[in-house]
UniProtKB/TrEMBL annotation:
<feature type="active site" description="Proton donor">
    <location>
        <position position="536"/>
    </location>
</feature>
<protein>
    <recommendedName>
        <fullName>Alpha-galactosidase</fullName>
        <ecNumber>3.2.1.22</ecNumber>
    </recommendedName>
</protein>
<keyword id="KW-0378">Hydrolase</keyword>
<feature type="binding site">
    <location>
        <begin position="462"/>
        <end position="466"/>
    </location>
    <ligand>
        <name>substrate</name>
    </ligand>
</feature>
<feature type="domain" description="Glycosyl hydrolase family 36 C-terminal">
    <location>
        <begin position="631"/>
        <end position="715"/>
    </location>
</feature>
<dbReference type="InterPro" id="IPR013780">
    <property type="entry name" value="Glyco_hydro_b"/>
</dbReference>
<dbReference type="InterPro" id="IPR002252">
    <property type="entry name" value="Glyco_hydro_36"/>
</dbReference>
<feature type="binding site">
    <location>
        <begin position="348"/>
        <end position="349"/>
    </location>
    <ligand>
        <name>substrate</name>
    </ligand>
</feature>
<dbReference type="InterPro" id="IPR031705">
    <property type="entry name" value="Glyco_hydro_36_C"/>
</dbReference>
<dbReference type="Pfam" id="PF16874">
    <property type="entry name" value="Glyco_hydro_36C"/>
</dbReference>
<feature type="binding site">
    <location>
        <position position="181"/>
    </location>
    <ligand>
        <name>substrate</name>
    </ligand>
</feature>
<feature type="active site" description="Nucleophile">
    <location>
        <position position="464"/>
    </location>
</feature>
<feature type="binding site">
    <location>
        <position position="536"/>
    </location>
    <ligand>
        <name>substrate</name>
    </ligand>
</feature>
<feature type="binding site">
    <location>
        <position position="514"/>
    </location>
    <ligand>
        <name>substrate</name>
    </ligand>
</feature>
<feature type="binding site">
    <location>
        <position position="428"/>
    </location>
    <ligand>
        <name>substrate</name>
    </ligand>
</feature>
<dbReference type="Pfam" id="PF16875">
    <property type="entry name" value="Glyco_hydro_36N"/>
</dbReference>
<feature type="domain" description="Glycosyl hydrolase family 36 N-terminal">
    <location>
        <begin position="34"/>
        <end position="269"/>
    </location>
</feature>
Amino acid sequence: MAIIGTSSFAQNAPTIIPIETRQNVLVLQTDKENHLGITYFGKKLSQAAEYKLIPSQSRQRDGNAGIYNSAYTPAGTWNVSEPALQLTHGDGNKSLDLVYVSHNKAKENDNVSVTSIVLKDPVYAVEVTLFYKTYFQENVVEQWSVIKSEEKKPITLEKYASANLYFIAKDYYLTHYNGTWAKEMNPEEELLTAGIRVLDSKLGTRANLYQPPTFSLSFDKPATENEGKVLLATLAWSGNFKMEFEVDSYHNLRLIAGINPYSSEYPLASKQEFKTPSFIYTFSENGKGEASRNLHNWARKYRILDGEGTRMTLLNNWEATYFDFNEAKLSELFKDGKKLGVDLFLLDDGWFANKYPRNSDGAGLGDWQENVKKLPNGIGYLVKEAQKTGIKFGIWVEPEMVNPKSELYEKHPDWVIKQPQRPEHYMRNQLPLDLSNPEVQDFVYGILDKLFTENPDIAYIKWDCNATTFNPYSAYLEKNKHAQSKLFVDYVKGLYKVLEKLRAKYPKVPMMLCSGGGGRVDYEALKYFTEFWPSDNTDPLERIFMQWEYSYFFPSIALSAHVTDWGKQPLKFRTDVAMMGRLGYDIVVSHLNEKDLQFSQQAVVNYNAVKDIIFQGDLFRLVDPKKNDYAALMYATKSKSKAILFSYLVGNRNGAGSDTPIRLEGLDASKNYKVRELNLYPGTKSAIKEDQVYSGEYLMTAGFNPVVNARRTSVVLEIEAM
């Protein structure tokens, strides 16, 4: 590592540390007392030397009020604003000060650099290192902190944020999301005013059920797709989170994000350190569209497992059989999958447990042996039967959970998270296992390892997690004299240990992150999973809105979308919507009429021909369904040679539809293109003139009308350069 700057506690000359990407910069600067503050955030200056000319914003440091633009705000001394770090020292003292010591910059490659900044308390032996990992071309910053104690006695971390940012603007507009099961990702935009706005979760396991750790922040005015200053951000953590937006007395904004300190005081022994999860963000001066493409490019290359690869199509049995199946039924479904043309058959819940058979969600969870009545020949037989039919085999698991009606619960009640003196409280008739316990970690890993060891040709895993944490208590932590307040944090750490071990042995098997729908969608979990399940609500009309909102933060290759019988829309509409992600089917293929089957078979062929454009292309949201009676978005290749346009009718008022041309994006103005309609239902004709040639300039300036209306409720177009 090359040392870029050093300091001592007595330094007077300011140290300036620019954290730069291709377009943006975060400028950090020390003051006369060596406190590290943020002086600028936004568009990068062409002359880096001018960063020292930026006013130090001394008005933000009020000797009486204790308000400061700190890069990592401590608690208990000069600061009276909301802190990023709050702790109790070994002697019981709660004061903390942090001053700059040094910083390093290490270049991992031509695109990725890590700046680390060491801060220390001048009185107590506590050290904090702030890390800023920049992805230059993608304009993405990944930020976290490491807290270390050299005190003789243990200290207690009471609040330990990943990031502390400070913004100066005329106004601040926060877009955040709320929901519940089957109603995920409902956006709300609000003007932030004086005080603190908090987004948080206290759910433990299925932490995103009511609110995800993602948001966008617009500066000066609300950002649109192509205009405005906007920050898109998310916390990479699969547990409780907290994000605080504090507009101070000078109308500047302090953002603090990290693990929720709720019931999570964390003891730190001498010479131990605590690493916070990553806070990931990108900034654009050109609206939400550019910002989201920044995140997509970064995620595919650096975070999502096999993000630059491809994905298999599949047929799931859940809505066809639920818990009621046997080998004969499944064998017929294998044939249906082959007939449909998909790559994979996915066996869902209900295949395991014998003493308490998994014939409903009320029993068997935790007993991961094949149910001998349903599957007398075991999983291995199904894998081989699927292969004989010509498709691959995948399987559902929910290894973190247990039903009280199970052999596992009877044998190991001490492995279950529950208060010993309180009545048990269930969600979906189940409780979480205690992943802070290494024995439980081994058990959960063993479930998957046994499946793969005995059936090495299993080609796909669906990992579910359907309950939140009630009555948090760990018999393991109690037995080993650890603080119960470690449970929420150590549960997530335990989960990551299991996944890390699993991926070390099985690095390439595709896995879906389910969690009852969008209950666990974050970029730390997606290190280990190839895709996530956005919602158990597969009504295609609802999915248009959900997938639209998810698309700001996650690329299409990470999003699982299935054709089901939910909703009132025709099969073509349901299929067209599902093609905006990793396409799957959850239908009874044998119930399809001749035309529906013919359409579906051709749709799978069409999808396989264009899915790389959807997975790897740039996404442009063209017509917002929240503001119009139809939606339109498109994916364009980096070379601008091909694009796929999706458009859907979302309103049913008289005359609803695309009565005016849509200005396309992501094409080359100098190239000529032809437009062809995909997924035509048998017996119908396209309203598009496929022999017409258009310049890219025309399509992006005058626009193109996909002709979406009550008779053509969904339209998919392929746009290809000649």
